[in-house]
């Protein structure tokens, strides 16, 4: 049975402001919730139409109609859980780090989190202008990877100023990534969907890299930032 | 000014059945429409809130309120055009061909069309179970690339039976793509989001390839099919 205050809390968690105020976020679907329950994330409450057989204190059985009222999805998927937003761990100054300069699309961020997980990137650094990773659409797109990647929001310029690692940036007019034989661990910056990497951040880039185009010259569009991240990460890892 | 029959036609084009019946599809947004107007696609009618200065016969000036009524988007973008669905060209038995076995997500198909365009893949072959490429969500995701890739829907098993090209398939347990030095032009098959490549199609695969995972063993998820296509296409082209 769902209380009025629970309904109000969950509905408010659609908005970044309230996620930050309460320190909670929402996850939906049995598969992803099960994965998150096995992680270090702390469950606040699990609302479900069938029991998960976990600590009863945190589990609230609800009807399909109640799930429909709290779900952010058009087709609710049996359960909705509220988890505590974890405190990010300190960023390690080693390995390959992905830095995002104002990525706005939740689907893109979700895909990039999943790619970081796949390619063993421990730290994902997001400029404060990047979409919130606890946005429900991002959470749906990460498929549980969110628990295995350390995501920090910060002032990207200050972060780069303080780092001693090599800094790579993805640019349309960068060096052909396939011809670079000395890709090292460092920070790889991916820019905003419409405007790319901002001028202030570009100032810290030591090596501009790009993915060559093989199609006709007629083409004007760039690759989507998530697919570009996939290809660049693959290039760093295949060395 | 929008007529009742125009409103009815456009609304019906949300559905594959009516797109196939009438032979039309819908494109939205000034940028993508402008790109499509410069292609070989045939315009049926352009509904716009400000003139494009094209042949007046095909342009209908409408109000913002009218655009809102016909648009498939939550935030309509100044114009909506109805184009004729082109007849696919014959598939050339050369170069690199991407074949999709029942891809269901419109965003994934749109991203793959865009990748084909970027990497100079002329023919994209879709099993009849694959989502329709004239679905409005696919069209939005392709960003105009749809005009530069020849997309054919067919019985994939029959197509593979008749082809003499090498057949590659993406599998979780395939050979490490980074270790393959002899990738040749051929057909690369990507499978359904949930079930991968079907048994009937798998029978035609000569070389199974996979993208190695670099993260922790804890991970259970595969890469999203669109990002996997990005990485595999990149590997075929970088040779």
From TrEMBL, chains A, B:
For this protein, the record's Gene3D superfamilies field holds: 3.30.1330.30, 3.40.1280.10
The residues covered by the tRNA/rRNA methyltransferase SpoU type domain are 96-233
| MRM3-like substrate binding domain location | 5-81
Q: Which UniProt keywords apply?
A: Methyltransferase, Transferase
Per UniProt, what is one GO molecular function of this protein? methyltransferase activity
* Keyword Transferase carried by entry: yes
One annotated GO biological process? methylation
* A Pfam family the protein falls into: SpoU_methylase
- The protein's superkingdom reads Bacteria
User: Is-annotated flag, keyword Nucleus?
Assistant: no
Q: Which InterPro entries match?
A: Alpha/beta_knot_MTases, MRM3-like_sub_bind, Ribosomal_eL30-like_sf, rRNA_Methyltransferase, SpoU_MeTrfase, tRNA_m1G_MTases_N
Q: What is stated as this protein's family in its record?
A: Belongs to the class IV-like SAM-binding methyltransferase superfamily. RNA methyltransferase TrmH family.
Q: What is this protein called?
A: RNA methyltransferase
Q: Which organism is it from?
A: Litoribaculum gwangyangense
């Amino acid at each position: 049975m769902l209380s009025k205050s629970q309904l109000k809390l969950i509905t408010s968690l659609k908005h970044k402001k309230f996620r930050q105020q309460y320190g909670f976020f929402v996850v939906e679907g049995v598969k992803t919730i099960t994965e998150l329950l096995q992680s270090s994330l702390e469950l606040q409450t699990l609302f479900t139409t069938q029991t998960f057989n976990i600590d009863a204190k945190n589990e609230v059985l609800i009807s399909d109609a109640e799930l429909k009222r709290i779900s952010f999805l058009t087709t609710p998927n049996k359960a909705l859980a509220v988890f505590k937003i974890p405190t990010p761990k300190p960023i390690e100054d080693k390995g390959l780090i992905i830095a995002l300069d104002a990525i706005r699309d939740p689907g893109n961020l979700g895909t990039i989190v999943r790619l970081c997980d796949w390619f063993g990137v421990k730290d994902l650094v997001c400029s404060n202008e990047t979409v919130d990773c606890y946005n429900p659409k991002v959470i749906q797109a990460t498929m549980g990877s969110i628990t295995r990647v350390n995501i920090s929001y910060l002032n990207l310029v200050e972060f780069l100023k303080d780092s001693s690692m090599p800094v790579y940036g993805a640019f349309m007019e960068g060096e052909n990534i396939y011809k670079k034989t000395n890709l090292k661990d460092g920070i790889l910056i991916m820019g905003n969907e419409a405007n790319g990497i901002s001028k202030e951040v570009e100032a810290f880039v030591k090596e501009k890299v790009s993915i060559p185009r093989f199609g006709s010259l007629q083409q004007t569009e760039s690759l989507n930032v998530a697919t570009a991240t996939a290809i660049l990460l693959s290039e760093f890892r295949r060395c």
